[in-house]
Amino acid sequence: MEPFNTHTGMVMPLDRVNVDTDQMVPKQFLKALTRKGFGRILFYDWRYLPGEKPNPEFVLNFPRYEGASVLLARANFGCGSSREHAPWGVKDYGFRVIIAPSYADIFYNNCFKNGILPASLPEEQIEELFQRTEKEEGYMLTVNLPDQTIADRHGLMFRFDIAPSRKEVLLKGLDDIGTSLQHEAEITAYEKAHAATATMYEAVDVQNYSNRQ
Amino acid sequence: MPSKTLYEKIWDSHVVHEEAGKPALIYIDRHLIHEGTSPQAFAGLAAEGRKVRRPDLTFAVMDHSVPTTQKDRYLPIVDTGARLQFEALEKNCRETGVRLFDMNSKNQGIVHIIGPELGVTQPGQTIVCGDSHTSTHGAFGTLAFGIGTSEVEHVLATQCLVQSRSKTLHILVHGKRPRGVTAKDIILAIIGKMGISGGTGHVAEYGGEAIRDLSMDGRMTVCNMTIEGGARAGMVAPDETTFQYMEGRPFVPRGKAFDDAVEGWKKLKSDEGAKFDMTVELQASEIAPQVTWGTNPGMVTSVTGRVPEPGAFTDPNDQKATESALKYMGLKAGTPIVDIPVDRVFIGSCTNSRLDDLRAAAHLVAGKHVAVSIKQALIVPGSRGIKAQAESEGLDKIFREAGFEWRDAGCSMCIGMNADVLPPHERSASTSNRNFEGRQGKDSRTHLVSPVMAAAAAIAGHFVDVRQFDVAHIE
User: What is the number of other CB atoms lying within 10 angstroms of the CB of residue B45?
Assistant: First the structure.
C-alpha cells in the first residue's frame, strides 16, 4: 500500500451530514471484478444528470474545486454499506485526505486499507475550515501525519488525534496480511486449542452445497 | 474474576495475538461471502500467491444480484456485470474448495438468512462477511460484523482479523410489546431515539423483556438493523428460544454433542454487574408501528405522526438534512403519515423475509386484495428453504390470491442490483433496512416499515395503522 506522510492539496467542501456509501458508489457499480476505475463514478447520482452530463449544482463539478485532493466533510461520513468501493472511489478520484468531525466505523476502517487518511477534528474547527474554504478560492491545507497537524498558509493550525497503530499503518504503508501471517504459529496453536469452534461440523440434509462433489 | 459483558467474553476467547497499545489479532469462526464484495479479495490473494486458509469455515452464496423469477434463473443471466460476478464466484470457490450455494441450490438465499437457517451461525462464534448487515447473526449471541473487501482478503488468507476492542452499549427494551408492534418497530424506534450514529464505536447487546419475548426471527430483525444505528455489531444472549431454533439444523451438532454445546452456550451472557460504556432504555408499551419519512433510518416516526417541519430540529445540520430529505422524498412537512400514498410494496430483505414475517403478512392479507392504485406488490422470501416452507403452509397461495407476486429468494428490491428496481419518483412501503437516496433505484422513495405495516399499506394503498387490522401477534 502507498505510504502516507504529508500531503498538501486543495480542499473541496461537502456540506452534508451522514453521507452514506450508497451515495459515493451506487449499487450499479458494485458489479465489478477489480478495484479500479471508481473515481469516474464517485458520487454518481449527485454528480451526473441523465446522459452523464455533469450536474453544475454539485460541488464536485464546480470549476474552482477541480484538482482538489482534500475532502472536507460533515459528521458520520461514510455511514451505511460496508462496500470498500466507496474508499476506492475517493482515492481513485484523487482524494488523499478526508477531514470530518466523525466517521462510520466500517468506512473509517476501510480508508486505512487504501492509504487514505480520515482525519477527525471537533465540529467548531470543521466549521472554521468550511468558512475558509468558501471564502478563499483554491484554499489549500497541509496535512502532516507524523506531527498530526492540519495547517493552512495563513498560520491556522489544528492538531488531530489518531490511534498510534493506525498512524503506523499509513506511515509505513503496511500490508496487514503480511503482518498477520507472521503470527502463523499462533494461529495454528489457536486452531488446535479451539478445535470445537474452529472445526466445521459435517452437515446433513444439505444438498448441492459443495462444488467439490 | 471481574464481571464481563457477553461481548468481552466472546472477544477474550478469540484473541490469537495481542500486544499492549495495539489492535489484537482475533480468530474468525465463520466467514460468509457473496458475489458482490469478494472478487477483488480472491484476485488480491492470487496476486500475492496466497491460499484460502480455511475453506471449510468459509461459505459462499449468490444473493445480491440474483434474479427472483424462476425462469430467469434457468436462462443465461442477461446482466453482463452480474453474470461475470457469478462466474467469478463459482470459479473462485471451485479453485479454493469453498462451499458455494449457487442460485440453483435448494439452500440458496440471502447470506444472512441462510447462515442461521442452516445452522452455520452458532452462539459464541465470531462471524464476518463483506456486508454491513452481518450484524444479523448477533441474534444468536455471536460477535458478527461487516467488513470491507480488503478484510475479506485478510480473513481468507489468515482466518483472522486485526481488530481493536469496541466500547459496549446496552440497549434495554422493557415490558411487553403491544399488539401490532413488531421487532422492526422496536429497532426503528431505537434508531429514532439514538440517531444513526449513536452507536458508532460500540458493540450493542440487547436485553429486556420485549427482546427476550421475541422469536429468533424477530431477534435477527433487531440485530440486523443495529448497523443503522452506527454500532457495527448487535447481540442477544442465547437462551431456550435460541437452543430450540438451533436443534436439528444441518450444520449443528446432534445428540450428545448438541447437549454439550448447549451447556457451553448457556454461559454466554453478560455477568451480573458487568459494566457497559453506554445504556439506552425504552418502554415497549410506548412504541407504536414505525414509518420512516426521510433518507436515513433515523428519520422515522410513528404511524400516528406527521412528516416533521425542518424547523422542529435544533441543529442547523439536521434542519438542512430534513429539508433536503423532504425534497427528495416529495413530501410536505405536516402531512399525516397515513395520508402518504404508496406505489409499490416490497416484503423481503435480510431484515424481514423470514417465516415469521411472511406468516404475519399472510395472516393480514388473507381474503383481502391489494389496492388498485398499487403498481406492484412483491414477496421475496429470504431463502429457498423459507420459500419451500411457506409454500407447504399455503402462504404463497394466500399472497397470490391477494394480488402479490411470489418470487424466488435474493436481496431483490432492498438494493435493486437485479431487475427488481423501484422506478424514479415512485414510493415504496418496504420491509428492508435502508431508505438512503437511490437505494432501491435512482430517485426512488423508500419508506421502511414492518411486514404487517407493508402488507396493510398494500391493501389500503397508503400507510395505515396496522393496529386497525386483525393482526396476529406472531410477527
Answer: 20
Cell of B315: 441543529
Place of cell 489549500: A140
Cell of A55: 450536474
pLDDT per residue as tens digits for the range A148-186: 999 999 999 999 999 999 999 999 998 889 999 999 999
Ranges of chain B with pLDDT below 70: 470-475
> CB atoms < 10 A from the CB of B244, how many?
11
Q: Which of A102, A53, A107 is nearest to A80 (CA)?
A: A107
Q: Chains A and B: how many Cβ contacts under 8 Å? A: 217
Of A43-47, A194-198, A205-209, the range with the lowest mean pLDDT is: A205-209
Report CA-CA distances (Å) from B197 to A104, B36, B105.
Answer: 7, 25, 38
Q: How far is B366 from chain A (nearest CA, A)?
A: 33
For the record, the C-alpha cell of B127 comes out as: 462471524
Residues B57-67 have pLDDT tens digits of: 999 999 999 99
Distance from the B86 Cα atom to the nearest Cα atom in chain A, whole angstroms: 10
Q: What is the pLDDT of residue A212?
A: 38
The pairing of strands B445-448 and B427-430 is parallel
CB atoms closer than 10 angstroms to residue B404: 24
Q: Do B230 and A45 touch (CB under 8 A)?
A: no
Does the pLDDT of residue A17 top 90, yes or no? Answer: yes
Q: Which of residues 30-89 of B touch A (CB under 8 A)?
A: 36-37, 39-40, 43, 48, 50, 53-54, 56-57, 64-65, 79, 81-82, 84-85, 88
**E strands present in B184-266:** 202-207, 233-236
Rg (CA), chain A: 21
Phi-psi region of A101 (alpha: psi -120 to 50; beta: other; left: phi over 0): alpha
What residue of A is the nearest CA neighbor of B226?
A80
Alpha-carbon gap, residue A16 to B128, rounded angstroms = 30
pTM: 0.97
Query: d(Cα A11, Cα A119) in Å, to the nearest integer?
Result: 13
The percent of residues above 70 in pLDDT, for chain A, comes to: 92
Task: Please say whether the beta carbons of B350 and B111 come within 8 A.
Answer: yes
| Residue of B43, B56, B415 with shortest CB distance to A200 | B56
Cβ contact A116:A107 at 8 Å: no
From B306, B327, B309, B330, select the one nearest B318 (Cα to Cα).
B309
Q: Which of these, B283, B150, B233, lies nearest to A110 by C-alpha position?
A: B150
State percent of chain B over pLDDT 70.
99
ipTM for the assembly: 0.96
